[in-house]
Amino acid sequence: MALRLTKARIEIAAAEAMLEGKTVVLWELEPRGMAVAAIPPSDKWPAGRTSFFVQRRVGGRGSKQVRYVFGQFPDLDLVEARKQAFALIANIRNGIDITRERKEFFEQKRIEFENQKTQPFEKVFEAYRKSKSDGSRYWDIQLPYFQTKYFNPQLGKKAVTSIDKSDIKSLLNSIDKLSMRKKAEVFLKPFWKYLIQEEIITVNPMSAIAPIKKGKKRRRVLNKEELRAIWKATLDLKKENNLLGNVYQLLLLTGQRFREISNLEKRELNLEEGIYTLRSERSKNREPHIVHLTSLAIENLTNLPNRNAQLVFANSKGNPLGDFGKQKIAFDKKVAAHLGREIEDFQIRDLRRTYTSICASLGIDSDVTELVLNHVADTGKTGVKDVYQQYDYMKERKECMEVFTRYIKEHIAS
Questions:
Q1: pLDDT of residue 38
Q2: Which parts of 311-393 fold into alpha helices (H)?
Q3: Nearest CA to 143 among 161, 125, 160?
Q4: What CATH number has the domain spanning 117-197?
Q5: Contact 268, 293 (CB under 8 A)
Q6: 2-96 topology per CATH
């Protein structure tokens, strides 16, 4: 007898199958021909199995019945199961041999799978990257860069099944800079795990390689004299209509990450409310992040040339800002001119660390500063506190920005 399937009815059927040791079949009322079979535990399925299937005659009365299993409960929910059942039954009515189609599909997958085993690293890695990409900078910029510069020259033409521990070690040892070597290791590990999961390889060539030790944590904090020279150099850039002057000033005024500011999107910006909201897709911790903008920060975001429909900052051709290495060298020369000497060991990310240090010297609570910087993992909100402590400290975060900007006006930009 057909009835309207529900989650509760299916769960009861699965329990009956387990207790009585026999298969229980429930037929769906609509669409007719859809059913669920609860199978008791066996050698093949030690925990039992509950499957959706459709069963209809290919022709009229007396013609052969076609049964097609198309999903497992509860992985496939009832709403989606009904949709798939309607489509499969329509195909059967139209004379389509869905069983043959299924065999052909799996045969094609088998051929593709076997081919992957002999394919060179460069093709398999590119297919992996594209299949996983969510449009983020990690998948679409960083991985292609490392693939072209480091991975392909060493491993590109080798079959993935032939690559062993010595090949990986040789690749990593060929990268001189420790930070880039560590990144290469981090980028490669999930790739080999993916190949294991897909059963393309049986042994992970990185499993027996000792992790590369991280270098010493950078602790560079800029002093007042250096900050004044940097601020004056940003003014020089702005006079030249170089938007990096605006970007660098915003980095100092807000303490945010370089790419989050340089790739700031117009839809994220609300100058009337004095905030910008970093989208979760662009945020390092994948959480949206509200940044308060003081009057000095807003000055950097007004009357900018409209060169790109999406981005706040773009070059004269309307493209995202780039060529940062050469631009940084030129900027350092401007800083040196105001400082009266070369600025020692200065990286743009030092502005963020300097922001934190100044906030501490101004008596701003470290938890508030970490929230301003979007360091969610460092605020102590873990376990029970993470669940029950939902206060967002928006008022305190805004005050932090105001106090810091006042410091910049009085001691750096004056």
A1: 95
A2: 324-339, 350-361, 366-372, 383-388
A3: 125
A4: 1.10.150.130
A5: no
A6: Double Stranded RNA Binding Domain (3.30.160)
